[in-house]
Amino acid sequence: MAKGNYVDGFVIPIPKKKTAQYKKIAREACTVWLKMGALDYKECILDDAKPPFITFTFPQMAKVKMGEAVWFSFIVFKSRAHRDAVNKKVMAYFLKKYGSDMGSAMPFDGKRIAFGGFKVMVS
């Protein structure tokens, strides 16, 4: 993985029947973010939902419904300023492509995305 000092992280419940549609969008997003300057981009589907000794899991946090899978995604940047500059370009790209109705093109409920920008503390 590329070294960076700032990471955007997402947790998204995706309907399993829309996995192929989401993967198509995620592949495009990966290409766009990297083209616009992100250092790394990953989209991951939950594989181990009940690890030992853990009482609060991603499915609980994401309030996953029957027929949904948890996806964890992250994008790596040099800094928060770099993230802001890259994301500005990425949003311009997607607004041009989808217009202001961008959210309705997504195969998930945008109100259920958990997001945060994180400073890397240990690497």
How would you describe the overall organization of this protein?
33% of the residues lie in helices and 26% in strands. It is of the alpha+beta class and 123 residues long. The protein is globular, with a radius of gyration of 15 Å.
Key traits:
four-stranded antiparallel beta sheet, 3 helices, Alpha-Beta Plaits, single chain, 123 residues, alpha+beta
What secondary-structure arrangement, pairings included, does this model have?
Elements: E1 6-15, H1 19-35, E2 40-45, H2 58-61, E3 68-77, H3 80-98, E4 114-119
Antiparallel strand pairs: 1-3, 1-4, 2-3
**Count of helices?**
3
Structural class: alpha+beta
Residue fraction in strands: 25-35%
Order of helices and strands: EHEHEHE
Tell me the name of the CATH class. Alpha Beta
- Spans where pLDDT lies below 50 across 5 or more residues: none
Structurally, the number of domains stands at 1
- Please tell me what the overall shape is: globular
Largest sheet: 4 strands, antiparallel
Number of strands: 4
Rounded mean pLDDT score: 91
Task: Kindly identify the CATH topology.
Answer: Alpha-Beta Plaits
Distance from N terminus to C terminus (CA atoms, Å) equals: 11 Å
CATH architecture: 2-Layer Sandwich
Radius of gyration: 15 Å
